[in-house]
Amino acid sequence: MIISRNRGIKRRRFLSGTAATGLGVLAAPAILRAGTQELTVATYGGFFQDSFDEHIFPDFVEQTGIDVNSVSAPTGEAWLTQLRQAARAGEAPADVSMMAQAPRLRGEQEELWAQLDRSAVPNADNLPDHFVHGYDEDRFYGAGAVSWYITLVTNTEVYPDAPTSWNALWDPENEDRLGLLALASNSFLLEITAKTHFGGDDDILESEEGILEVMETLAELRDNVRLWYRDEGQFQQALESGEIPMGQYYHDVTGLAAADGQPVRSTFPDEGAVLDSGSWVVTRASERLDEAQVFIDYMSQPEIQAKLARYVGTAPTVDRELTDLTNDEFAAVASDDEPILPRYELYVERDDWVSQQWSERVTGG
Amino acid sequence: MSSNSLHATPGWLALLPAAVLAVLFLVPFGIMVGVSFAHRAPGGFFEPGFDLTSYARVFTPFVGRVIVTSVTLSAAAATICVALAFPFVVFLTQLGRAAQTVILVFLLAVLSLSEVIIGFSISTLLSQTAGIGNLLVWLGVIDAPQAYTPSLFALLVGLCYLGFPYTVLVLYPPVARIDPELPEAARVMGASPVRIFFTVLLPMLRKPLIGALILVFVFTLGAFLLPQVLGRPVHWTLSVHITDQAIFQSNMPFAAAMAVILLLVSLAMIGVTLLLGGRERGAR
Predict the structure, then answer these.
(1) Which of A203, A215, B123, B270 has an alpha carbon 20 to 30 Å from B215's alpha carbon atom?
(2) What residues of A are in contact with residue B147 (Cβ under 8 Å)?
């Protein structure tokens, strides 16, 4: 169906200017046979899955002898629902899944994720604490997979000069010109508004009164919004044609579109871009925990994170210093500036309240 | 329905569709009603139980406004479809056999297009960069191309495109069966074509017309993609909000409660339409 979190949909290109490291193009069937063990891995469909199939899984199969059955998963919440229903029936549609942070936290609350042996994943040491997930200190269950930035994007023909601040979204000049993500929990516009309009401090989102205040400011840009999109393809096409020349979008896909000759650009605003991420988790119905641990460990290596940056266009989850990414390569996928970090717990703890206020005060009316 | 003399078809054959209907419609519907009363676990999924919280959320001014929007949009789409399709079908039945077949096959082919294709095509057609605005500029009608989407107009175009073939298919058989002697008799007696249309054809076809209205109304009530693609947030129907809750918020109880209310509202609307339309049936 159209409402899928297909990161990047139609494009599967190398990021331009990649220093090919000999890891280039390998034939990648959906099931890669090497040994007797097999692991089913779910990533977002489309571009993500294609890139993993092509650049990541073949080497993994070769090095570990574990076959990878690569499947595509829909948007995080929908996939969570499917995994949860399947787990009740004792089934695992995939062993390892890449999960967005809000559904990961929901799964954590229900203990949907299998507990893993932290000592079997030594490379998780490379990851910062917020990418090492556990029910508590001793009960490890997952690790950061990839990060990506949501930035301010513009059509270069309509906007010869790049905007510098998220404030452009509120500029009356931009009436009926913006495309924004339709939901509080995937647009992170509350965090952006708090950072831009409330003194660079998002503590205001701690309380319900504060959230309402932020929503009020956010609602002021409503007249500028032409499209509240749920489907990425819908906005990307409109951005490329100049029909909707400004908005928020994914840095990786915008970069690929620009490299492809489209008149689009992605800008890291002064206030920072939103740094979102996905993590590897294993459903508790999986019987392949050992293989899953090998996989998560493999993916947490700095070399693999660098490879993801080069071929998938995602930002590394490990510290930049650990990777061999050049300045240009790093700048193509990330920024050293302080990012806006989504407050995922807001969409888990106050989920229904936020979504209701959001539909009534921000998009609705 | 069937009289005793019609026993060529064994009655038990009806059990098969009945069973399919029970398994594929009533059971999921029962589950949905059950889920609508389930207890929503904060930050999680839901637990079985009897909880009216989801219904309490349905009965808020906001959801009320969304229901009014949904019903108004679908009623408008149904009215426009029937208003366009009825004269079209009358015209169609007056054409030769071959022309009728070609047009009907074309309309059937339109049915194979998904809501997605229709939505994106119309949004391109009405866009500023590639749409009909450019044609109008070329013709010198307007000065600069403008976008006609998202708007109420664009959304109604989409909904009517979706509903029109069904309306024609519902109206075609009864219109084709009308005895040509009746309008002819009226003409002989001096009635104008317009008068024949309104005083002869329209009253004779009251029931199929009401049927077509109901079909398009119910059909467009379920559209959840066109309002997102072609409408502004004020045009987002209850189906859009149900999708948001079910897919993005994982709030199955609230989504189910809204779906139950949507069903009740549409049943009520159908009831009212049948009551109003059936009033003069005895006078036939």
Answers:
(1) B123
(2) 226, 243
One domain for residues A157 and A301: no
- The whole-model pTM stands at 0.84
Q: Do A75 and B247 count as a contact with CB atoms less than 8 A apart?
A: yes
A262 to chain B, any CB pair closer than 8 A? The answer is: no
Query: Does A236 reach chain B within 8 Å, measured CB to CB?
Result: no
Instruction: Give yes or no for B40 touching A (CB within 8 A).
Output: yes
A21: in domain: no
| Residue in chain A lying closest to B250 (CA) | A77
Q: Residues of A numbered 176-215 whose beta carbons fall under 8 angstroms of chain B's beta carbons: which are they?
A: 182-183, 185-186
CA distance B147 to chain A (A): 8
Examine residue A24 and state whether it is found in any structural domain, yes or no.
no
Please report residues of B whose CB lies closer than 8 A to that of A363. 233, 236
Q: A56 lies in which domain range?
A: 31-147+276-333
CATH number of domain containing A356:
3.40.190.10
Bridge partners for A146 per DSSP: A278
DSSP bridge partners of A278: A100, A146
- What's B64-279's CATH class? mainly alpha
Residues A185 and A259 in one domain: yes
- What Cα–Cα distance (Å) separates residue A178 from each residue in A98, A307, B91, B116? 30, 33, 45, 22
* ipTM > 0.90, yes or no: no
Q: Does B128 touch chain A (CB under 8 A)?
A: yes
Q: Phi and psi for B264 in degrees, rounded to 5?
A: -65, -45
How many Cβ contacts (< 8 angstroms) between chains A and B?
84
- Same-domain check for residues A359 and A223: yes
Tally the domains of chain A. 2
Cβ distance B129 to A365 less than 8 Å, yes or no, reads no
Task: Name the nearest CA neighbour of B173 among B227, B212, B223.
Answer: B212
Q: Classify residue A221 by burial, with Cβ atoms within 10 Å: 0-12, 13-18, 19+.
A: buried
A38 and A142 in a common domain:
yes
- Measure CB to CB from residue B130 to each of A227, A241, A364 and give the nearest one: A241
Q: Are residues A213 and A71 part of one domain? A: no
Cβ within 8 Å, pair A243-B147: yes
Of B190, B259, B237, nearest to B37 by C-alpha is: B259
CA–CA separation, B235 and B247 (whole Å) = 20
pLDDT in tens, chain B (284 residues): 444 555 677 788 888 888 998 899 899 999 999 999 999 876 667 888 899 999 999 999 999 999 999 999 999 999 999 999 999 999 999 898 999 999 999 999 988 898 889 999 999 999 988 888 889 988 888 888 888 989 999 999 999 999 999 999 999 999 999 888 888 898 898 888 888 888 888 888 988 999 999 999 999 999 999 999 999 999 999 999 999 888 888 888 999 999 999 999 989 988 988 888 765 544 44
- Inter-axis angle of helices B97-111 and B152-177, nearest 10: 140
